[in-house]
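Q: Hi! First time doing this. I have a protein sequence and I read that you can turn it into a structure. Is that right? Here it is:
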Amino acid sequence: MKLSTPKNVTFYIAVALAVIALIGFFVAAMTPFAPWLMLVAFVVLAAGNLLEGI
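A: Yes, that's right. Below is the predicted 3D structure, encoded as structure tokens:
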């Protein structure tokens, strides 16, 4: 399996989702969704590494 570098936009989307998830851990209304947002951020970043052109 060959890994590729994710595009900048993919990386920034993953970082934005991770930051929103981190903020969500401290905001009572978002607390139930924060782990899921972090998981989505990881999946986006992993897809950017595993799939070429994303």
